[in-house]
């Protein structure tokens, strides 16, 4: 999910996949990647596999789903393609089976690269071990959402503001069915964080009715992560 962008330019279409596998008597695991440390954007951060939507994804989407929104179709294809490229995991679910879970597009001036990112939810029964590509991803593994949050809190890793908020949301679900039910219940919307001044400090905020248990964070810590 790299690339240069002029200030004021339109955001770049991107897509990520939240791939979940369930375990008996334990929290579901998510497919997590850790970005390469030499990358410009979110270097070394924990992320869900994904990246920008390529021209070829638009072409493929137009062929497979000619009556669908072209960006939506291309984003679904990109989410599956990027997951395979970055982690070696081939998603069993079809493109049409992906469940829209979230959409984020930051507007804060401190964000130098703006991506309009669609996050899709899918379930897998696969037991394959992810393999990082060694370029965009330094690591790839399965882990419960709470484990990644704990790592970040202990200083053993970091996650940018949208990823942390999504992990906190996903940590609430005991099953794929619960996550899917909430995704289908909540209306689709773009989460565009805004800034508020509170007691002399800047806070980055998101809506409190979009399913996220944490809806604000000091900018100083949000951008540190």
Task: Give a description of the structure.
This protein is of the alpha+beta class. The chain has a single domain, classed as Nucleoside Triphosphate Pyrophosphohydrolase (Alpha-Beta Complex). Helix content is 27%, strand content 28%. The protein contains six helices and ten strands; from the N terminus they run ββββααβββαααβββα. The longest helix is centred in the middle third of the chain and has 18 residues, at 70-87.
Low-confidence stretches: 1-7
If you consult CATH, what is the topology? Nucleoside Triphosphate Pyrophosphohydrolase
Order of helices and strands: EEEEHHEEEHHHEEEH
Number of strands: 10
Using only C-alpha atoms, the radius of gyration works out to 17 Å
Give the proportion of residues in helices: 25-40%
Global structural class? alpha+beta
In CATH, the architecture is Alpha-Beta Complex
CATH class: Alpha Beta
Number of helices: 6
Distance between the termini: 17 Å
Kindly estimate the percentage of residues that lie in beta strands according to DSSP.
Answer: 25-35%
Q: Could you outline the blueprint of secondary structure elements for this entry?
A:
Blueprint: E1 12-23, E2 26-35, E3 46-47, E4 50-52, H1 55-64, H2 70-87, E5 99-104, E6 115-123, E7 137-143, H3 145-153, H4 161-170, H5 176-185, E8 194-198, E9 201-205, E10 216-218, H6 219-222
Question: Which keywords apply here?
Answer:
225 residues, alpha+beta, Nucleoside Triphosphate Pyrophosphohydrolase, 7-stranded mixed β-sheet, 3-stranded antiparallel β-sheet, 6 helices
Question: What's a concise summary of this model?
Answer:
The chain is built from six helices and ten strands.
């Amino acid at each position: 999910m790299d690339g240069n962008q002029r200030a004021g330019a339109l955001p770049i279409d991107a897509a990520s996949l939240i791939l979940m596998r369930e375990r008996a008597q334990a929290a579901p695991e998510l497919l997590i990647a850790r970005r390469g440390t030499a990358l410009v954007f979110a270097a070394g951060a924990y992320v869900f596999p994904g990246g920008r939507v390529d021209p070829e994804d638009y072409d493929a989407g137009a062929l497979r789903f000619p009556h669908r929104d072209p960006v939506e179709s291309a984003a679904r294809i990109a989410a599956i393609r990027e997951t395979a490229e970055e982690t070696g995991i081939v998603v069993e679910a079809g493109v049409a089976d992906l469940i829209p879970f979230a959409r984020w597009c930051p507007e804060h001036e401190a964000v130098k690269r703006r991506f309009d990112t669609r996050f899709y939810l899918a379930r897998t029964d696969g037991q394959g071990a992810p393999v990082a590509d060694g370029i965009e991803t330094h690591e790839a593994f399965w882990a419960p959402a709470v484990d990644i949050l704990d790592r970040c809190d202990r200083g053993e890793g970091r996650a940018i503001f949208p990823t942390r908020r999504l992990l906190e949301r996903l940590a609430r679900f005991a099953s794929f069915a619960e996550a899917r039910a909430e995704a289908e219940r909540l209306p689709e919307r773009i989460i565009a964080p805004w800034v508020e001044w509170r007691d002399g400090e800047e806070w980055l905020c998101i809506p409190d009715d979009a399913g996220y248990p944490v809806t604000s964070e000091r900018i100083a810590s949000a951008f540190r992560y």
